[in-house]
Write a structure and sequence with these properties.
Number of domains: 2
Radius of gyration: 20 Å
Strand content: 15-25%
Largest sheet: 6 strands, mixed
Helix content: 25-40%
Structural class: alpha/beta
Order of helices and strands: HHHHEEEEHEHEHHH
CATH topology of the largest domain: Nucleotidyltransferase, domain 5
CATH architecture of the largest domain: 2-Layer Sandwich
Number of helices: 9
């Protein structure tokens, strides 16, 4: 299995040997997303009946879900993601970074105060593009100018985009950070420049007297890369949160982002192109 080098069954003196290895569970999770299955039961039925030569042993639906959440709790998925970034660190060696956010919707609501269910970490937020309130999370993504996802964070939907800039750029310096109008904040811009020598470039609002230079206008055209990544994640069913718990949401989100990174890395290895075109979903 592809994931066998970094994910595997871990045994201790007190634990019984696992029938299904960690690498098998995670490989199945990524394969489910790449093949576009919404439900684990339908996916596992097809693997069990049509892919028997490749996967002779397939876990039940309950075992699959519990083991996948266990991998997430043990930080195995994020560790695998970090190892991918470390191995392909050449893809992160760029001076231009692009930051943006996207809703992860659990439920749409008519007003900011109309919600009955409460799940830890979720909140009511507003999506400017659709002009709708929703209950859920907000996914923050930091990518390179080529579109490679280098960092991501999840916050309650009510979090303002600017509140996450310092955390998302922690450890970075001497870069140009591109954002949309939601990241306009002069105080934050000056703080980034003085502490980390980061130039934050955003378009200005119509009522602002400042204007962009020609170089800044050309750089902001690169923001289309992050929209491409978000579109790919939407196809991978990351935008809509179908899990009923924070743990399930994080597991699904992590698996979706790792799947997107694997698609890009595969295309990079094939023709040195960071494309999201890998399977019929993206063609």
């Amino acid at each position: 299995m592809f994931f066998g080098s970094t994910l595997g069954p871990k045994k201790t003196l007190r634990e019984k040997p696992k029938i299904y290895s960690d690498s098998l569970i995670f490989s199945l999770a990524v394969l489910r997303i790449l093949l576009g299955f919404d439900t684990e039961s339908h996916f596992l039925w097809e693997i069990r009946n049509l892919w028997r030569d490749i996967f002779p042993r397939v876990p039940s639906n309950s075992v699959f879900n519990s083991r996948l959440r266990e991998l997430n709790r043990k930080m195995e998925i994020i560790n695998f993601y970090n190892k991918l970034l470390e191995f392909y660190k050449e893809l992160l060696e760029t001076r231009v970074r692009i930051i943006d956010s996207q809703p992860v919707i659990f439920k749409k609501v008519s007003r900011a105060n109309t919600i009955n269910s409460r799940i830890y970490g979720m909140a009511v937020g507003y999506c400017p593009s659709t002009k709708e309130y929703y209950y859920g999370y907000k996914l923050h993504l930091l990518i390179t100018e080529g579109g490679f996802p280098g960092r991501f964070m999840l916050s309650p939907a009510s979090t303002h985009d600017n509140e996450m800039v310092m955390d998302m750029t922690y450890g970075l310096k001497d870069i140009q950070l591109l954002g949309d109008k939601g990241y306009i904040d002069q105080e934050d811009k000056e703080r980034l420049k003085s502490l980390r020598n980061i130039d934050k470039i955003t378009p200005y609002k119509k009522n602002m007297k400042k204007t962009l230079s020609e170089e800044e206008k050309e750089l902001l055209k690169l923001r289309g890369q992050v929209e491409r990544d978000f579109s790919a994640l939407e196809v991978l069913n990351v935008k809509v949160c179908k899990a009923k718990s924070t743990s399930g949401t994080l597991t699904r989100l992590m698996t979706g982002i790792v799947s997107l990174v694997l698609i890009m890395i595969s295309n990079w290895e094939l023709d040195r192109n960071l494309s999201v075109a890998f399977c019929p979903h993206f063609t």
